[in-house]
Automatic annotation (TrEMBL):
Signal peptide (from-to): 1-29
Keywords: Signal
Protein name as annotated: Uncharacterized protein
Biased composition (Polar residues): 35-52
Region of interest (Disordered), ranges: 33-52
Claim: Signal is one of the keywords in the record: yes
Length: 52
């Protein structure tokens, strides 16, 4: 039971983190139109700047 609860807690945190990242990415570069590849490049280049 405890393992199941821990699993759900981790899944919830992962989902919340993914949602936060998606919201941040859409706020940063969601407005400019382009192929999905450019969005991936944007996220990859802006991640170190946000982290450090």
């Amino acid at each position: 039971m405890n393992d199941l609860l821990s699993f759900f807690q981790k899944a919830l945190y992962a989902t919340a983190f993914a949602l936060l990242v998606a919201m941040a990415l859409s706020a940063c570069g969601g407005d400019n139109p382009g192929p999905s590849g450019s969005t991936v490049d944007n996220s990859a280049s802006s991640t170190p700047a946000n982290g450090g």
